Amino acid sequence: MRCCVLATLVLVAHMPFAAQSAEGPVPESGFGRLDHVFLIMMENETDKDIIPNRNAPFINAYARQVNRAANYYAVGHPSAPNYLELVGGSNFGLSNDAWPDWPERGCIDHSPGGNGCRNAFHPIENRGIDNAVVATATKPGDCNGQISPRTPPSERNCALRDYPAASFVGKSIADQLVAAGKSWSSFQQGAPGTGQQLLGVNYSDGYWSNLSSPEVFAAAGQIQKLYAVKHNPFAYFHAVQLGKEPLLSLERVKGFDGADGLWASLQTRTPNLSFIVPDQCHDMHGFVAGGPAFCSSATDEQKALLIALGDETLRGLVAAIKSSPAWQRGRNAIVILWDENDYSDAPNKVVMLVETSYAANGRVEARAYDHYSLLRTLEAAFGLPCLNHACDASSQVMNTMFGGQDR
């Protein structure tokens, strides 16, 4: 038996993921440190669906003025893994948009016939092994889970490159910012409250949620899923869910309105990292489940309206940020990013824009990047260690996109 155990240990030691570091040194920055980053997340559009598109006049005009990454890729599908990869450098074993299995409360959905809790995802903590992602899908499930590519699949319809399964440390950039004495907030439009009010909330129309009583659903039917936990990656982390440390808790998740929401924060205490997520009617996602049929993208006309609504949303957000006291001082950046394409049989390329307050803008960068590159860049900007796949040699700091020089 002892010989077999030793043989197994030797085999594990030589597996590809065993040698990969889950947390590494602080990446070198070619643009210096930043004071504030405003990261605005949009949804489910291929780059060619946006640039050019006459229904998105603000975005197209803005893209000509600021820095644009012309070859920026998502890391597979669907939304939740991409958001986790962006803030934590790993999909952490999540292969779909499963809701969290909340501590103590568990996963609850009082809607009639709801089955969203069937495969609830265990909160992220400690260490583990993530899911592999491939550049070109050959079968359903290759892109983290939810995609059925046509035959033959198009070039790079999943990730920028192959990412074998690797070991991860269960942290996000929020953990790192708090450890470094810096601040963060996840601003989620339509979120029904903050702190303990969000514990167990997987979707909401801003008032009612999956936790609302069965009587609510009986009277109103399905509610609009405007706020979606799959677009709030920090809520998947055990430490944030438990909230033992107020600076690393659901207290840092806020809506857009109210005394501590996004609009107020821009005029008062702006965190170092603002993770800004419009609701699913304003982020170009559409197909909002539940309730009356609005913000749909079932027809070309509806999709055009959805893109126009997202365009106006971005116009307002950028204007509010640039009129804020925080933008007027220090070294700051606005980042606008789509999480993934629209599942079409096309490369998984998305729009990624950066405006800086401290350097010339207007560059079009042809180099290929993805969410891991952006995480590494944010870590370089705040002087934080790299996390998980952001430590990979292929994940490069986006120096020129942030007004700096390549190292």
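[next item in queue]
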Amino acid sequence: MVALSLMIEGQQGLTWPHWKRLVAQAEECGFAGLFRSDHFTNARPPDQDALEAMISLGYLADHSQRIHFGPLVAPLSFHDPVALARQALAIDDLSGGRLILGLGAGWQEREHRMFGYDLGDVPTRMDRFTEGLEVITHLLQDEQPVTFEGRFYRLHEATLLPRPRRPAGPPILIGGNGTQRTLPLVARYAHIWNAVMLSPEDFQERSRQLDQTLAEAGRQPHEVRRTMMIGVFFGRDLAEVDRKLSWRQNSQHLSMLSLEEAVDRLPKLGRAIAGTAETIIEHIRVFEQAGVEELMLQWLDWQDAEGITAFAEQVFPHL
């Protein structure tokens, strides 16, 4: 059965009162997990409150019992991999082994320019990401001191203590759809692959490509869990769905479509799943048939506490 987790954009007004409510609600409503983005601010103005990601996950670890959680994803363009590995190890231990360490290369130019981080071109980002994955993997998994000499990072007989209670530490998740660099990194380092907004057919094709890449790396397909982040626009009735999809009037792909046609087209575009509970359930089952093991549902209107509860009550019993 496909697992359903809640995913929110932490740079879009998230404060401690909001986060505390979301942690309790995700746990109580039966979501498998709670994930959040890791950004200083939005790619475009306006700037809003943005609760720091790893500190917020430390709170979650100590104020929940069941759900798994993590950053989706922590960019190594502004996170030091040594500090991040150390934080992840501690948070995972605090939670009793429920952290998923989502990692990415970084992409948002505006936040890097604002806060003085060098994002670099795409090859530089991917080279730095590869080294960072190497550093984090060794620090979490190696029992012997780690020495590493790279272009971006250097270690000399480094050991993080205490060692993780969970063997090899928290599982590493790598997000992205790229076949040239991302999927080979998934095959080499990751326990979980997180695709980003693909149609069921595209997800299936990327998953087959990942199987081939894993085989080339000497790993089996079952060694990497298949997950995907996708938007969700849930309404308790069609009028609410229509309101939540009002932005479609400005979309070249959706503006000429009826509400019913737009709801049908969105998952085929890989943008979102939308509708009332009955339609949402149908879309989820299609993604499950395509091989998705967990959907991280990007809930943009996360301040709608009643809507999140209604979703859980109307959708979960049928899956």
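[queue empty]
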